[in-house]
Write a structure and sequence with these properties.
Elements lengths: L6 H14 L4 E5 L4 H12 L7 H6 L6 H4 L5 E8 L8 H5 L6 E2 L8 H18 L6 E4 L7 H7 L4 E2 L5 E2 L7 E8 L18 H5 L5 E3 L2 E2 L5 H7 L6 H7 L2 E3 L3 H4 L26 H5 L3 H7 L9 H15 L4 H8 L7 H20 L6
Parallel strand pairs: 3-10
Antiparallel strand pairs: 1-2, 2-7, 4-7, 5-6, 8-9
Helix pairs in contact: 1-6, 14-16
Length: 362
C-alpha cells in the first residue's frame, strides 16, 4: 500500500507559499464552532444585525463550512496587514472637524480583490501539490465566521470590540480563508489577552459595544456609514463627528496596536488624498468624480447617494463658516430625497449654532 501523505510537510510548504504571496500569517482550524454558532444565533435574535439581512439569511450556516462547501474538513486562515504608511495620522484627522475621516482599511485598493487573487493562487498551489478535490476561497464574501476560524487557527483572539487581535501585530489586518477537503493538522487556538481593559468599550462614540464581546451593529458608525442605505438616525449624527466612511476608534485606543505594522502592499497606500481631504472638497464631487476616484476601492460599494449623505452629516458637525454653509446649500435641491434630508439637518445645526453665538457690541 502507498504511504499516507505527509501533511505536516505540506503545511510547511503552504506556510512558505503564503509568505511568498504577501500574507503575514497562516493557520489551520477544524470546522466545529458550536459555541460561536450559539452566540451568533443569540445576536441575530436580538436584532443586532440591523439591515444586514444577509446575516440572518445564512444564520447558522456561517459556522458550518461543510454545509457551504460539501467535503470541507479544514479552514485555512490567512491575514494581511493593511495599515498604510505615509498617510495622515488618524488622530490628526479626527481632531480636524473640517476634514473627512475614512477608515484606514479603505484608503487604498479594495482588499477583497487583492486578497482573493492571492488566495486563489495559494489554493491552486495547494491543489497542484496534493490530492485535494475541493477548495473554495473566501474574503469577507460569503457566510463564513472568519474571525472565529482565524482564532482557532491561532491568528489571534477576538477582542471586546469583536475584532481579531494579534499579540505581535495588533488588529489592522485583513482575513481570508480557503475551505479545503484536506485533513491537514490543525493549529492551537490563540488565548484571550484583553484582561480587564475596556478602552474600546469606553471610547465608542455611539456606545455600540454594548458589553464585552458584543457589538450592536445598529449603533456602530461603520454600519451607519457603510451598511445602512436609509436615513441615519438623528440620535447618532452628532456622535459621528467627521467620520464619513467607517470608524477606527476602538482600534485606535487598543493597547495591542502599539505592535501594529505598516503594510508593504502598494495597493493599500492611500489614494486620491482620502486620508484627510476637506469635507467641502469631497462634497463637491460629481457622481462621475466619485465613480472615478473610488474605482477599485471598497468605498464605491456604498454609492454616490450614501457618500453625500455621510458627508452632509459631517458638514453639519463642522464649525460654522460661510464655506461650510455654502457647500451645504449647494445641495439643497439634490435629486436624492435622502441627501436633501441630511443637508436640511446639517443646515439646521448651523442655524442653531449661529443663534447661540454671542452678540458683540461696539
Amino acid at each position: 500500500m502507498p504511504a499516507p501523505p505527509d501533511y505536516s510537510e505540506l503545511v510547511s510548504s503552504i506556510r512558505q507559499w503564503s509568505r511568498d504571496l504577501g500574507f503575514q500569517q497562516l493557520g489551520i482550524a477544524g470546522i466545529d464552532l458550536p459555541e460561536d454558532e450559539a452566540r451568533l444565533m443569540r445576536w441575530l435574535e436580538k436584532g443586532r444585525h440591523g439591515a444586514m439581512e444577509y446575516m440572518e439569511r445564512h444564520g447558522a450556516r456561517r459556522a458550518r463550512p461543510h454545509e457551504l462547501v460539501p467535503g470541507t474538513l479544514r479552514v485555512i486562515s490567512v491575514r494581511m496587514d493593511y495599515l498604510p504608511p505615509n498617510s495622515q495620522g488618524a488622530e490628526q484627522i479626527l481632531e480636524d472637524p473640517e476634514r473627512g475621516y475614512v477608515s484606514r482599511y479603505a484608503l487604498g485598493r479594495d482588499y477583497h480583490k487583492v486578497l482573493r487573487r492571492r488566495l486563489a493562487r495559494l489554493a491552486e498551489k495547494i491543489q497542484a501539490h496534493s490530492a485535494s478535490q475541493s477548495h473554495r476561497v473566501f474574503v469577507d464574501s460569503g457566510p463564513v465566521l472568519e474571525k472565529a476560524f482565524a482564532r482557532n487557527a491561532g491568528l489571534g483572539w477576538i477582542g471586546k470590540h469583536t475584532n481579531l487581535i494579534n499579540r505581535r501585530a495588533g488588529s489592522y489586518f485583513f482575513l481570508g480563508e480557503i475551505l479545503t477537503d484536506l485533513p491537514l493538522p490543525v493549529d492551537e487556538p490563540e488565548t484571550n489577552h484583553c484582561g480587564t481593559c475596556r478602552a474600546c468599550i469606553d471610547v465608542c462614540p455611539t456606545q455600540a459595544i454594548v458589553g464585552p464581546y458584543e457589538l450592536d451593529a445598529t449603533r456602530c458608525i461603520s454600519y451607519l456609514t457603510i451598511e445602512l442605505r436609509e436615513a441615519i438616525p438623528e440620535q447618532f449624527r452628532k456622535a459621528m463627528g467627521n467620520r464619513i466612511y467607517g470608524c477606527d476608534d476602538c482600534q485606535l485606543v487598543c493597547p495591542w496596536n502599539k505592535f501594529a505594522r505598516f503594510t508593504s502592499e502598494a495597493d493599500f497606500v492611500a489614494r486620491h488624498a482620502l486620508d484627510g481631504s476637506k469635507l467641502v472638497e469631497l462634497f463637491a464631487w460629481t457622481e462621475e468624480e466619485f465613480l472615478g476616484r473610488t474605482e477599485g476601492s471598497a468605498i464605491r460599494r456604498i454609492g454616490y447617494e450614501c457618500w453625500l449623505r455621510n458627508i452632509a452629516v459631517a458638514l453639519g458637525n463642522a464649525p460654522t463658516s460661510e464655506e461650510v454653509v455654502r457647500s451645504l446649500e449647494s445641495r439643497k435641491g439634490d435629486p436624492s430625497a435622502l441627501v436633501r434630508e441630511h443637508v436640511d439637518w446639517a443646515l439646521a445645526q448651523h442655524r442653531r449654532a449661529s443663534d447661540k453665538s454671542p452678540v458683540t457690541s461696539y
